[in-house]
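Example 3.2
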Amino acid sequence: MREWTGGDASALRRALRMTEAGFARVAGVSVRTVSKWSTRPGTVPRNAVQARLDELFAAASPAVLARFARFTGPQPADAPVPGEAGGRVVALAGHPRFAADFRTLAAGQLLAARSALGLTPGEFAEWLGTAMGWVPGPGTVEAWEAGLVVPPGDVVMAARFCLAGAL
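Structure, written as tokens:
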């Protein structure tokens, strides 16, 4: 992608269905900065934030990518596609690394993140609420961890960032 702008970052936040506060936490910026991106879409984030936005985009699900494309509108024909650095965006189920059961991988990430934080399912649900802006029920967390239900992409990303020490 060409350089990220505030407008692109705002579109990514909306595509991820995250609050400004939740997006600020995962992007490593202040809520005020996220708000400024919405009101001043031509703002160009600093290089460290550009890299974090690239990571968020690369981890996004196909549904998030589709919403992002709708929010950003048509791109010039010569503009590279966001997230592409000589590669291509693929669905996780079709990616050789993730061709195994994504549900199992996601469940493992959630359980590892909850264990790393030393929280009960209810406490982890509350923690997710602070990270994402919405609170799942403790039973939902347990269903995700058991692999009974595939967790939403923002939940998997929050777990991934937790394990990486970003949250």
